[in-house]
Amino acid sequence: MAEDEQRKQAIERLQAKQNLGKTAASFGAIWVLLVVIWLAAGQGFFWPVFPIAGMGIALGMQAFGIWGQKPINEEAIQREMRRGGGPGPAGG
Question: Looking at residue 79, what is its pLDDT?
Fold first, then answer.
């Protein structure tokens, strides 16, 4: 892999990590706000668990995209091309 391509991929990974941090900070602020609303509304059933869980899943999926997936490399591309068969590009 050329050094330029490695640099480009490294920059993309760093940007993805920065975006994950921004998303986590935003979600954290929203979670705090939801709990404050729940407290102000007289507590009762802890309904914020549902949006917190959904946002937590989204955050986990974003993190998996950064650390859980292997980057696509030339070997994987060539292997997929040899397999052939599957659906082609959308629109023909």
Answer: 85
